[in-house]
Design goal:
single chain, alpha+beta, Arc Repressor Mutant, subunit A, Chorismate lyase, two-stranded antiparallel sheet, 8 helices, globular, DNA-binding transcription factor activity
């Protein structure tokens, strides 16, 4: 697969890898924009964009006239709900991984058909997975993809980022409808997420739509709350 990631991701990934390896310590000043530009063979504008992204994500902070510092990493990590789990994990200097439980084509029932704006009986990809950050189970998810739009899925794709793959295929979302609620872990989910039965979970449902408003992804996810929480950034 070709890598269409923006160049500033090179900067972000380098800084995050330095943090994860312990080379950058909390409160330590990192290299200057010029040094990073030379070391990574990218422009200073690209370096500045990568640093700004990490500042916005509270991983770095800037002190005028002094430099850019590494923020202390909190015990509990916040994830943006819904999509982008792989990038969210990487942005926090952790290693994402996935255990694929099921991949198959199914016929849409009436409720799924209504959500996906298709006729009942049309084909959907069913993907059931557990998502990990540094080998700690974070999410149990079941997702459905419109098979007329998402032509092909395989084990390799589903064990990585489906959205990154779809973006390469020219399939991306314009907006997402999301519902967030609370639930308790049953015995099956407790085992999957390594939590106690009855532990509180965050329950999400998303419907991802393209520019023309057509949904291509219906997803359900359960987040464990022992080590993680969800967060939303609200703009004025």
């Amino acid at each position: 697969m070709t890598n269409n990631a923006p160049k500033y991701e090179i900067v972000k990934n380098y800084i995050l890898s330095q943090i994860k390896a312990g080379i950058y310590q909390p409160h330590q000043i990192i290299e200057s924009e010029l040094e990073l530009s030379n070391n990574l063979s990218v422009s200073r504008i690209t370096v500045r964009r990568g640093i700004e992204e990490l500042v916005n994500e509270k991983i770095l902070s800037k002190k005028k006239g002094i430099g850019t510092f590494v923020n202390p990493i909190p015990k509990f990590f916040g994830f943006k709900a819904g999509i982008g789990f792989t990038s969210e994990v990487k942005n926090r200097g952790m290693e994402p991984s996935t255990k694929l439980l099921k991949l198959e084509k199914v016929k849409a029932n009436a409720v799924q058909a209504e959500d996906m704006k298709i006729a009942a009986g049309e084909e959907l990809w069913l993907v059931e997975r557990i998502r990990y950050a540094d080998k700690v189970a974070v999410i149990y998810e079941i997702e459905y993809f419109d098979a007329s739009i998402v032509k092909d899925l395989n084990v390799e794709i589903c064990e990585n980022s489906i959205y990154e793959y779809l973006n390469e295929q020219g399939v991306s979302y314009e907006f997402i409808d999301q519902r967030i609620s609370a639930t308790l872990a049953n015995s099956k989910i407790a085992e999957f997420l390594d939590v106690e039965e009855g532990a509180p979970l965050i329950d999400t449902k998303i419907i991802a739509c393209m520019k023309n408003g057509k949904p291509f992804n219906l997803g359900f996810a359960l987040y464990q709350t022992k080590n993680y929480y969800l967060m939303h950034t609200i703009y004025k």
